[in-house]
Amino acid sequence: MIPEDSSQLCLSGSLLLADPSLHDPNFRRAVLLLTEHRHDHGAHGYILNRPLGKLAGELLPAPEFKPLARVPVFAGGPVSPEQLTFASFSWLPAPGLLKCATHLTREDAMERIQNGESVRAFVGYSGWGGGQLENELKQRSWITCKPDATIVSGDNATRLWSDLLSGMGPWFHLLSKMPDDPTLN
Fold first, then answer.
1. How many domains is the chain partitioned into structurally?
2. Cα–Cα distances in Å, from 31 out to 59, 65, 126, 132?
3. Distance between terminal CA atoms of the chain?
4. Which residues contact 84 (CB under 8 A, 6 or more apart)?
5. What is the CATH number of the domain that holds 163?
6. How far apart are CA 185 and CA 181, in angstroms?
7. 184 in a domain, yes or no?
8. Residues 6-51: tens digit of each pLDDT
9. What's the whole-model pTM score?
10. Cβ neighbours of residue 48 under 8 Å, at least 6 residues apart?
């Protein structure tokens, strides 16, 4: 439920799951991690379930970037699709929190890999202007939830949307099983 005064709402660190009614091809069945959110300044995040089937080594073949060779590349969103950025993820089990560092340089990403963190590369990002995301939330274009440990591995990227929805209760389980195009049912 969205509070009446959505200017108090802060969703940094939350996941946004596209409602099945959201037909924008950029976000159809997308799972986004909101890395920044302020009502007056907007929001920033990355789509976590759009692997491009590429590794950073294919985009950065120079020998000095060899530690990044196995980093998976994801479509982070429709904004600045020519930009490659890195983010690291780790799960803190005691408080049950996702630790995420974004806007990493290549050097920072290599250091985090050596420290055992999960690193992903993103082509583009998702962004909203001030108040825009709040309006989309009021229109119920997005379902919010907290991240869990499955986010870190990225192994289930293509199933992430349906897996997360299924675990949110019976109504969401039904939504997760909806065919992509109900008219073909």
1. 1
2. 24, 29, 11, 18
3. 31
4. 56, 59, 60, 73, 121, 122, 123
5. 3.40.1740.10
6. 7
7. no
8. 455 689 999 999 999 888 999 999 999 999 998 888 999 999 999 9
9. 0.89
10. 15, 31, 32, 33, 74, 151, 154, 157, 160
